[in-house]
Design brief:
The complex is a heterodimer of chains A (595) and B (636). By secondary structure, chain A is of the alpha/beta class. Chain A has 20 helices and 12 strands. Chain A is elongated, with a radius of gyration of 35 Å. With 636 residues, chain B is an alpha/beta fold. Chain B has a 6-stranded mixed beta sheet, sandwiched between helices. In chain B, strands 2-1-4-5 form a 4-stranded antiparallel beta sheet, with no helix packed on it. In chain B, strands 7-8 form a two-stranded antiparallel ribbon. In chain B, α2 packs antiparallel against α5 and α2 runs parallel beside α7. Chain B starts with a helix and ends with a helix. The chains are: A alpha/beta (595), B alpha/beta (636).
């Protein structure tokens, strides 16, 4: 495998860190008081933790050396009280830390969700649906987890290190020199290890992905692999990937194997050094012996805090990556927005008019549509046919104002869609999208998605028109039969028919059917179209299709070819006059059947 | 431990056997390093004692013996000090013996260094053991995939199999890596520390030990209480993610049907529930840390006070207190680690069990090539692309087959396909047309009757020999993540560049490949949208061309394909069929009309068989099917 795209993030970028802190600052601002409280409480806890060895020194210096047992018990009691108080303080701190981080997580999630809801199709396409879902869920989770840890462990670790150094200097300035050496050495070791391991981890991840991809291919392509006798080839590819993964994992784990003993040795040698130098100080009378013992405890506490801080720091690159992805969403402004003063069409007839419309996707070299002009009349069925990429779906998106055209104008109900409120516009449209997407719930809940107040009779009626009555009636629970998310428990044809029934429940004046008959057999297709025609008599009906058999009965057929109109007319007219249409019909229905 | 998990452990051990020497060496090194590490504090304590003794000795007048000095103290009413000193190694009048002090500390430093060295060696060795073992398991699982019957893959969701071979192995990896290093180290360290603590003071050690059940009780108590909240958190996370997924995926529908507001309200509700549950879970589980910390501090305080008291009363030395404090501090960390590592071990064993169960699945029976392999192999296998393919004869004689023993599916089915003939398989969706493919390709073995290839029984041929004669273009256009060139070349071993281009040209795929910016080097991956599904179909046709088989299996169903590509696919398939015996899952009128034999399937079974005219006349199922699916086609 060559270098993977993750490689460009090899170094820990300051810019990324700034993105994370900026995001957190913005979302923590409303909770400034609580954050300060958490920091304060944790500081108290850390300081108290450091004060305990100090009392222990007193026990030795005064209690033991003077033989004052009463003092020992008194101080012991004091230490116990402090320990109890510290844990209470710490519980309160954790309470607020959890509250703050969870609130920030919830509000980040909500903000992203609302933003995505206002996105136009352009922004949705730009990010991709899957990516938006991850950003809205997983990435928020990452940032929230980081915040939670940062507000507890990181604060304690920082306060302990700083406070420990201060206390150490107070206890014995001479000995703290040792600390000044040990802490940077430890930090350096950890930094070197991280620099070596983090890129390795990225590399491991990409190699794990590769293994998973190969296995997924082997499982999904089992028939093809066996048919072409490629089992050995596949095994060779897998072995290579497995070997690569093992080698990289081994290298990472061996670096870990070095790191932990090295850290422990720094810790222990520091203790040895303190006792050696401290011994001389004590012998000279410049330091009480109890303080020496306390000092050993400090240094252990401080160095352990450094290790804790590091484990938190490991989380940072992931949180940074997530913060960057979240910020991208939040800084994207929807390109399509309602006008300040939306106009209202005089009559909602369902009429659609394209006036010299052209459109290109951002970054695309060639326009999808150029100079498209036509009118769709109420009471008529208009069909749009053309090859993949000829701009059929784009055309529907322009009617719904998911995009704005680059040139020309789209009029619905006699008024430019850019002058209307989107909700108003949509409320008069029944849409059946190309992907027959259903929501998790029941048949009824899916249908009522479009007509919230429809009665059961209405639902059955719509199902009848959509030729879905029979299969719904045979489902257990009928209208209450459960539908999995995305409709995965239904066949493609069943999904299409349910989504057609759903659109019918809007009782709109404009129906858009985006290539939604493809999974139906021609007989069902024909019955459905006949029923539709009766149901939608006064409305404007637009059918986008790839199959000639689907469009041939339409009142008006619009043939799109490479983003331009190649012909408009009835089946008969187009067969006579329109070469691209004739081509389509012959290729699908065979030579000699067209005439 | 249940019998199942004991088996799992035994199997896991047998996997580790090749590395048993390294494993033993690693364990020994672990024991050595733990022993050295736990001796350290005791030696440091001894150094402190030397220091303290030196201080005390200097404060006493020179020239008197230890006994005299103590007697003197007692006489002056310092009874307590006298008792403490009597337990110490003091020489009145002398200062600190720095030579001895230094030697002791030096010894501690050397022990620590050796301990670290051993620990590094252990980690190095064990990492190798863990990675080699996981490597072997991964390989075994992958090799197993190739030996499993198709039945296995068809009878469960692919996601489930994938999860097994990826997630479970990953989990096992983590477990082994952790178990062989950290768990071993933690256990050894805890044992070593316990030994040292009991050696210094059984009383204090007992007190420290009493902390363990206390902290385990506390931790598990909190865990029990927070578990419900964690479950609620998972529940609401799933519910929220489901909603986010739906509303982002169905963005257009949500907008057009005016459902933004209701969806938004639902989102807020779930988000709030998640917040509540998440907060409670996070807070409750967060209290474990201060609770354990309190117990640690409690322990510390008891040792400091009780230890101090005992030093003052002469039962204990100062160095012992220092060592004890160090021990008790080092004690809590591995104890709490062991708890989480045991959890990991448990989940790792569960994963291992699933993997071993998978490896124990019944495999496809091995088929030995008994009949004249050379002749058949020669004739069937070695077709060069330039040469025209040799069409084969296929005979199915009284074949019976069922997926499940109780459900008869195909009984007594006979079909003869002469060389170059076309057999059309028709039937509504879900009629089981792929069953015929499964039997012809020998993805499944038949239960009765026989299938003959040019007169040779399948059973006397190897599976690979049978499959070498077939080319397959299915509706599921499986291509792997690689370049277009590699994917076409997949059809035959050692295909040259010219072969690939010729195949692409024959399949009508050449124009669109040339139009791609990267041409034949375009990488196909699951996310790529550069190549449409119809174009993928063309690539699978090219792949079949390259294989140049004598028999073809084609699926005509091409949904979501634009008309131009559809036309190209049709032309490609027609050319591919030329001169070959073909089995076509037919969707086009021209195909059924021109077919030599039509096989009609319904509800998984073959119901009628014959020529078009004959079936139209006699076959009720075919007539219905024809009227609904095909008859309208010429009417336009």
């Amino acid at each position: 495998m060559p270098s993977h795209p993750g490689g460009r993030h090899r170094r820990f970028s300051t810019r990324g860190w700034l993105v994370l802190t900026k995001l957190l600052r913005a979302y923590l601002r409303p909770h400034t008081g609580q954050v300060l409280l958490v920091v304060l409480l944790l500081s108290v806890q850390a300081a108290g933790g450091l004060y305990l060895p100090n009392l222990n020194a007193d026990i030795i210096n005064r209690g033991v050396l003077d033989g004052d047992t009463a003092y020992i018990w008194r101080t012991g009691g004091l230490m116990l009280g402090i320990a109890l108080a510290l844990s209470t303080v710490s519980v309160i701190a954790i309470y607020w830390a959890a509250r703050v981080s969870m609130t920030v997580g919830a509000s980040l999630r909500a903000t992203i969700y609302q933003r995505v809801q206002r996105f136009s199709a352009r922004e949705i396409n730009q990010f991709g649906t899957a990516s938006l879902i991850t950003r809205n869920t997983n990435d928020v989770q990452q940032v929230q987890a980081f915040l939670q840890v940062a507000l507890t462990l990181l604060v304690i670790a920082l306060v302990t290190s700083v406070g420990g150094v201060v206390m150490a200097i107070r206890e014995g300035a001479a000995l703290s020199v040792l600390l000044m050496v040990a802490v940077p050495v430890m930090a350096l070791i950890i930094a070197v290890m991280l620099a070596a391991v983090v890129p390795l981890f990225r590399s491991i991840q990409s190699k794990v992905d590769r293994i998973n991809q190969l296995l997924r291919e082997q499982i999904s392509g089992i028939r093809v692999i066996r048919a072409f006798l490629r089992t050995a080839t596949e095994q060779g590819r897998f072995q290579l990937a497995n070997f690569e993964l093992t080698r990289t994992s081994l290298r990472a784990n061996r670096i870990f194997a070095v790191t932990s003993p090295v850290l422990v040795i720094v810790l222990n040698l520091s203790a040895v050094g303190i006792i050696w130098f401290g011994g001389h100080l004590v012998s000279r009378g410049s330091m009480p012996i109890g303080n020496l013992l306390a000092f050993v405890t400090y240094i252990l506490q401080i160095l352990l805090a450094v290790i804790t801080a590091v484990t938190v720091i490991i989380l940072i690159p992931r949180a940074v990556a997530s913060a960057e992805r979240i910020t991208q969403v939040l800084s994207t402004v929807p390109t399509v927005a309602d006008p300040a003063q939306p106009g209202r069409p005089a009559h909602v007839t369902g009429a659609v008019e394209f006036r010299n419309v052209s459109f290109a996707y951002p970054g695309a070299a060639a326009p999808v549509l150029t100079g498209v002009t036509f009118t769709l009349w109420p009471g008529q069925t208009s069909a749009i046919i053309g090859g993949t990429g000829s701009g059929k779906t784009t055309l529907l998106s322009l009617i719904l104002r998911f995009f704005d055209p680059a040139g020309g104008a789209v009029l619905v109900n006699g008024l430019d869609v850019r002058k209307q409120s989107a909700e108003e516009l949509w409320s008069g449209v029944g849409l059946v999208p190309q992907q027959a997407f259903l929501f998790g719930g029941t048949v009824a809940s899916n249908l009522r998605f479009a007509g919230p107040h429809a009665t059961d009779t209405d639902l059955w009626r719509a199902l009848g028109v959509a030729q879905a009555l029979d299969f719904v009636a045979s489902m257990p629970g009928q209208l209450d039969a459960s539908v999995d998310q995305g409709g995965t428990n239904l066949s493609g044809g069943q999904r299409q028919r349910l989504s057609i029934a759903r659109a019918l429940l809007t009782h709109a004046q404009l129906y858009l059917f985006d290539d939604c008959f493809s999974a139906l057999d021609p007989a069902t297709d024909a019955r459905l179209q006949a029923a539709l025609r009766a149901e939608t008599r006064s409305a404007t009906v637009v059918i986008v299709a790839q199959r000639a058999s689907t469009v041939m009965r339409a009142d008006q057929i619009i043939v799109l070819d490479a983003g331009q109109i190649a012909g408009v007319g009835t089946h008969r007219q187009l067969l006579a006059a329109c070469e691209p249409y004739r081509e389509i019909v012959t290729s699908q229905l065979g030579e000699g059947t067209a005439a | 431990m249940s019998a199942g998990s004991r088996d799992t452990v035994r199997l896991l051990m047998s996997r580790l056997r090749p590395d048993r020497l390294r494993l033993a060496a690693g364990t020994l090194l672990g024991v050595a390093s733990a022993a050295l590490f736990v001796t350290g504090p005791k030696i440091l304590g001894h150094a402190t004692d030397i220091l303290f003794a030196g201080l005390v000795s200097r404060s006493l007048p020179a020239g008197v013996t230890k006994a005299q000095a103590i007697a003197g103290l007692r006489a002056h009413g310092h009874g307590q000090l006298a008792t403490m000193f009597s337990a110490m190694d003091i020489t009145p009048g002398h200062g600190v013996d720095f030579a001895r002090f230094g030697r002791t500390l030096g010894l501690a430093a050397v022990l620590y260094l050796c301990g670290a060295g051993f620990s590094w060696a252990q980690g190095y060795l064990m990492a190798g053991v863990a990675q080699r073992t996981v490597y072997g398991m991964r390989e075994a699982v992958e090799a197993k995939l190739a030996r499993l019957p198709l039945r296995y893959f068809d009878s469960r969701p692919h996601g489930e199999i994938l999860g097994l071979v990826t997630n479970d192995i990953d989990n096992l990896n983590t477990t082994l890596q952790q178990g062989l290093n950290q768990l071993l180290t933690s256990v050894l360290t805890v044992l070593g520390i316990l030994v040292m603590m009991f050696w210094i003071s059984p009383l204090l050690a007992t007190i420290s030990l009493a902390i363990i059940p206390l902290s385990i009780g506390l931790t598990s108590g909190i865990a029990r209480r927070s578990k419900a909240h964690f479950i609620a958190q998972w529940h609401w996370t799933a519910r929220l993610n489901g909603l986010v997924e739906e509303s982002h995926t169905g963005h257009a529908l949500v907008s057009v049907f005016g459902q933004r507001r209701p969806m938004s309200e639902d989102f807020s509700h779930r988000n709030d529930q998640l917040y509540q549950a998440g907060f409670r879970a996070e807070f409750l589980s967060g209290t474990v840390q201060p609770a354990v910390q309190f117990l640690g501090n409690l322990n510390y305080v008891v040792i400091a006070a009780l230890g101090g008291y005992r030093v003052a009363t002469g039962v204990f030395t100062l160095g012992d207190v220092q060592a004890f404090i160090q021990y008790s501090r080092q004690f809590t960390t591995p104890v709490s680690q062991i708890a989480s590592q045991l959890n990991q071990l448990q989940s790792g064993l569960a994963s291992a069990q699933r993997v071993f169960d998978f490896l124990a699945m019944p495999e496809e029976p091995v088929v030995h090539d008994t009949a004249v392999p050379e002749r058949i192999g020669d004739e069937l296998g070695g077709s060069a692309p330039a040469r025209l393919p040799v069409a084969y004869r296929v005979d199915l004689e009284r074949v019976s087959f069922r997926y499940e023993a109780e459900t008869p599916l195909i009984e007594d089915f006979t079909l003869h396909a002469a060389p170059g003939q076309t057999v059309a398989i028709v039937g509504p969706t879900g009629a089981g047309k792929t069953t015929v493919v499964n039997l012809l390709m020998r993805f499944y073995e038949i239960d009765g009757g026989r299938i003959l290839l040019n007169g040779t029984d399948y059973r006397s041929l190897g599976r690979d020999q049978v499959r070498r004669c077939f080319g397959m273009v299915l509706q599921d256009t499986w291509l792997f993540a690689g370049t277009i060139r590699e994917n076409i070349a997949y059809g035959r071993d050692g295909a040259s560049e010219e072969d690939v281009i010729a195949a692409a040209r024959a399949a009508q795929a050449e124009p669109f490949i040339r139009a791609l910016p990267q041409g034949y080097d375009t990488v196909l991956d699951p996310d790529t949208s550069a190549v449409s599904s119809g174009q993928k179909q063309l690539l699978t046709i090219a792949r079949a061309f390259l294989a140049n088989p004598g028999i073809l299996i084609l699926d005509e169903a091409t949904s979501n394909v634009d008309t131009r590509t559809e036309a190209a696919i049709q032309r490609g398939m027609a050319r591919l069929r030329r001169g070959r015996t073909s089995f076509v899952i037919a969707h086009r009128l021209s195909t059924v009309r021109n077919a030599d034999t039509i096989v009609v399937m319904s509800a998984g079974r073959i119901v009628e068989q014959g020529g078009h005219d004959q079936l139209l006349h006699d076959g009720t199922v075919y007539r219905d099917l024809y009227n609904s699916q095909f008859a309208q086609q010429p009417a336009w």
